[in-house]
Design brief:
Elements lengths: L1 H27 L11 H13 L8 H16 L1 H12 L11 H29 L11 H29 L11 H11 L6 H22 L7 H10 L33 H9 L5 H5 L1 H4 L6 H21 L11 H5 L2 H5 L6 H5 L6 H15 L6 H12 L30 E4 L1 H6 L1 H16 L4 E2 L10 H5 L3 H17 L4 E4 L2 H10 L8 E4 H10 L12 E5 L13 H8 L4 E3 L29 H10 L5 E4 L2 H17 L16 E4 H7 L7
Parallel strand pairs: 1-2, 1-3, 3-4, 5-6, 5-7, 7-8
């Protein structure tokens, strides 16, 4: 009778599970096609290190260790679960005939069983007693987490219950390859040497274990814990290293396209929909988001969860109407995700970096911005002048394109038009060409290159904005126009090596220009400075008065391109520099607030991101704040100025320049000022 009942329960549970999995797969397939099977070896490495090795989770040690043991404990229980299911059809079955392997199976159950119970206890404490901020969710999130954790507790306890009673039924005699120290201990304490009720108790725990596992399995498709199934595939299918942190271009020449960007589910790729079903709702993305942490509406977690919710709403209706485009009700953008949320993103990539299952939040945000700009012509009013200036002046500011090379007057720098034979092209960028403050950086870096004997040229008036701002703001048409024109100019001069002082230019020229035929060796100016110092091509004096210096990591140099050491090594090469790090630095660095086109938008909700970062810089007690990005310099300068006006800055501890302001300098300026006389 037991076998018959179990057969119906087991087959029914599996049928229901696979039916629901099939539904989810059919919804995900509504997304557009995309190839995610390139670079298989790199993908397998990610699975081993990130999915199985829990590399990203362990960046936060306590939470990472808790999850590590729950994850591996549950996986290692799999053999015990399989054994239990087989016993439903053949009650006398066990793995004892597998020899020494059975020692591992039984030992893991006992040892990891206790570890998993302890880990779940800590997880419940952190979520419901300590109430860790990123773990607090709205809606059914908290109940969902509690329910699943309780189910796991029941699975483990019922597993122990089976083993304890199994030992009693064997008259407390373990097989030669059976290792159950915990279960044996409790079996003796509970039963002594009498096993009278053990047979009945064993059946109770066997059914409890079996039904709980099947309940857990069938709850997954309706829960955020579906990531137990989808996270490993999602990690495997994440962007390959060659495409990492790169925005994919739109096909603007597709005459059949009725819209561009993403307004609803079918305009996402299937992988972006899979991201929604892989989200663990752990909140790591939102906890590091500069917009979310300064009190704004944007939450990267909510963006991804909303994609999942909309897919769950849209998919069944769409498929029921025989693939009709008519789906009554909401759309993803506007109804689930507001315009305001999308425009608050700085594209700093902190969310992507922290996500333990490799979700690509920034791509989704940019795709939805593209729809707002290109299809709906709906964007903040401040961007009208930005887009207009980019179209007419090839810079986001209203400067005359004829003045682009004025910064270099008197320096004896040749343009490519005058002499294209230089080894390097110095890509100056819009800020380096027009912004009065950053023109000083351009001149300082040019001076370093000249002192080092580097053979370089500039484009002068032929240089145009690199297109990063337009692309991240969703104006893909404008971005591609500038990118293609720049590539044509660069290839026309047969440019091979480019150096730039702007991380946004650096990232675009190095990675995204390849999409349009621009294949160049691209260096950030801090890389060049570090190299000419290391090669002895320039010599530096020590500071007359030693100074504490803190360095702010640019997101597009650090997180996007893993360049953390060159700026610091360049600073430390200057004698007298005492480098002090901010609390959030390197891979955990905090955005200045200017990326993703936010440089040209006002912070109207919550506190200002740049002030948050400026306050953190001041808290180090440093006398100089070093930067390596024009946007970062502007934002930090404005942030310190605002804090000073509000009386928040610790004026007595800060070194000041002649105007009484906190010193904020680019790495190039700090190095250039300390060039020894014989290298000038």
């Amino acid at each position: 009778m037991k076998t018959v009942i179990f057969s119906y329960v087991f087959i029914g549970a599996l049928a229901w599970f696979f039916r629901n999995i099939g539904n989810i797969i059919s919804w995900i397939r509504l997304g557009k096609a995309e190839n995610r099977l390139d670079a298989v070896s790199g993908r397998l490495k990610n699975v081993l290190t990130i999915a199985f090795g829990q590399k990203k989770l362990l960046r936060e040690p306590l939470a990472g260790i808790i999850h590590f043991f729950i994850f591996w404990g549950f996986n290692l229980f799999l053999f015990g679960v399989i054994e239990t299911f087989i016993q439903g059809f053949c009650p006398s079955f066990d793995f004892s005939g597998s020899g020494w392997f059975y020692v591992l199976v039984t030992g893991v159950q006992d040892i990891f069983g206790l570890i998993v119970l302890a880990a779940i206890g800590l997880a419940l404490f952190r979520r419901f007693v300590q109430r860790v901020g990123r773990l607090q969710t709205t809606g059914k999130g908290m109940a969902d987490a509690a329910f699943v954790l309780v189910l796991i507790i029941i699975v483990v306890i019922s597993m122990f219950g089976q083993n304890i009673n199994h030992i009693a039924l064997q008259n407390f005699q373990l097989k030669w390859n059976e290792f159950r120290p915990v279960s044996y201990f409790f079996s003796l304490r509970i039963y002594g040497f009498s096993n009278a009720p053990a047979a009945f108790n064993y059946e109770v725990f066997w059914w409890l274990h079996t039904l709980t596992v099947l309940t857990f399995l069938n709850y997954l498709p309706f829960s955020k814990h579906f990531h137990i199934i989808s996270s490993v595939p999602n990690v495997f299918l994440a962007k390959s290293e060659a495409k990492k942190n790169i925005i994919a271009p739109l096909d603007l020449e597709d005459e059949s396209a009725e819209s561009f960007g993403v307004a609803d589910i079918r305009q996402f790729t299937w992988k972006q929909l899979l991201d929604g079903f892989s989200c663990t709702e752990c909140g790591r993305c939102t906890s590091v988001c500069p917009a979310a942490t300064t009190g704004k509406s944007l939450s990267p977690r909510k963006i991804i969860v909303d994609i999942r919710k909309r897919t769950q709403e849209f998919g069944p209706v769409f498929l029921a109407e025989s693939m009709s485009e008519r789906v009554a009700g909401n759309t993803l953008v506007h109804n689930y995700i507001t315009d305001k949320e999308l425009w608050q993103c700085t594209t700093c990539n902190a969310c992507v970096q922290e996500c333990p299952v490799m979700i690509e939040h920034v791509d989704a945000v940019v795709d939805m911005r593209r729809n707002l700009v290109l299809t709906e012509s709906s964007f903040p009013a401040e961007l009208n002048s930005v887009f207009k200036s980019l179209e007419t002046n090839y810079t986001p500011w209203a400067f005359n394109k004829a003045d682009r090379a004025n910064w270099a007057e008197g320096l004896g720098i040749k343009t490519m038009a005058e002499d294209p034979s230089g080894e390097y092209l110095f890509w100056v960028g819009c800020a380096g060409s027009y912004d009065n403050r950053y023109k000083k950086v351009s001149r300082a870096f040019a001076g370093i290159m000249q002192a080092a004997g580097m053979d370089f040229r500039i484009l002068g008036t032929e240089e145009k904005c690199n297109g990063d701002t337009a692309r991240r703001l969703g104006n893909e048409y404008l971005a591609q126009t500038m990118m293609r024109e720049n590539v044509e100019t660069l290839n026309g001069y047969n440019v091979k090596k480019i150096v730039t002082a702007c991380p946004h230019c650096y990232n675009s020229l190095k990675k995204e220009y390849k999409q349009f035929g621009g294949n160049f060796e691209v260096y950030h100016h801090t890389e060049v400075i570090e190299k000419v110092i290391a090669d002895g091509k320039i010599k530096l004096r020590s500071l007359e008065t030693p100074a504490k210096v803190t360095y702010h990591d640019s997101c597009y140099l650090g997180r996007y391109n893993d360049k953390y050491d060159a700026p610091r090594e360049s600073l430390l090469a200057v004698g007298g520099v005492d480098l002090v790090e901010m609390e959030r630095n390197k891979r955990k660095g905090f955005c200045c607030g200017a990326g993703g086109g936010r440089m040209f938008l006002e912070d109207v909700e919550g506190t200002r991101i740049n002030e948050e970062r400026a306050r953190e810089a001041l808290d180090t007690g440093a006398e100089v704040i070093g930067s390596a990005c024009p946007f970062c310099m502007t934002m930090l300068t404005d942030g310190v100025k605002a804090l000073k006006a509000a009386g928040d800055a610790q004026d007595t501890t800060l070194k000041r320049d002649d105007e009484g302001k906190v010193i904020i300098k680019d790495i190039a300026e700090i190095v250039f000022e300390q060039l020894a006389d014989n290298t000038r």
